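Case study 2.
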Amino acid sequence: MTKKILVESCLDMLREGQERSDLKDFLKSHSLDAQSRLEIISEADNQFLLELKEARPEPKTKSPNYLWYTLMVLALLGVMLMAALGYLKIGLLVFVLIYLSLRKLRASPTSQRNDYFKGFSK
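Prediction:
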């Protein structure tokens, strides 16, 4: 058998979930030397890992709400103007409320952000 056919058959075995020892036994049955077995297994591993990398799902990202952030920046500028004109207590109170609302919107729970490895959890 040619090297390409052996690599494809090893790749099929990897897709089925076979281990490296099974691949070595399969290649020993075709009477290959150790160096060529190692080359075939490493090439099959590389192709298998490339397939896994290409099959990886894209992370879910939400687009930012530019209108909300624009309104918040304008509100913060207004609060700073109020504080500069002498309305210090009201300005600081509004500033703290806006800061807390921005902080709440920015943070999302870890379970929503990191869902790529959920299938591997026990």
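The radius of gyration is 29 Å.
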